[in-house]
Write a structure and sequence with these properties.
Layout (H helix, E strand, L loop, with lengths): L40 H17 L3 H19 L3 H17 L3 H17 L3 H17 L3 H9 L4
Helix pairs in contact: 1-2, 1-3, 2-3, 3-4, 4-5, 5-6
Amino acid sequence: PASAAPRSAIPSSGAPGSGGHSPGSGGRAPMPSSLPPPPTMGAAVGAVARLAGSLLHDGQHALAEALIRELDRVAAPIAERDYAVAARLYALHASRALCYGDPAAALQWTELSIPSFAFTGDRRNACLGRVNAAHAILQLGDHQRAERVSRLRPE
């Protein structure tokens, strides 16, 4: 995240003021010598989008809508050049439409998410998107089309 300090700005373990076990450190645990890399924007968007989706399905719509608005503000410009971010946003909007009883909109958003997930190599979510599309099509009453969609093989 933008608020995280760059690695070069983090003092090494044992250096004065680093929190290591140097004299006068107050017995604090040493800082790890190598920190994991910060999450990518795609991973961060994915995590917040999954949280918002879970809140929608749990009926906590106000909190979910606040997260969705923030995701749209922050991540939508990134989605124009990052398929993983786009896929996650599309899937979130599909879940939102389904939770609000709009299977036609859910189908439209889901159909956008499938090729984006496939392009990034995320076959699991691309396949899940096809299942969700078939479900939305069933809700729209087109049983034959739903069966065809559910039988499509992954690309």
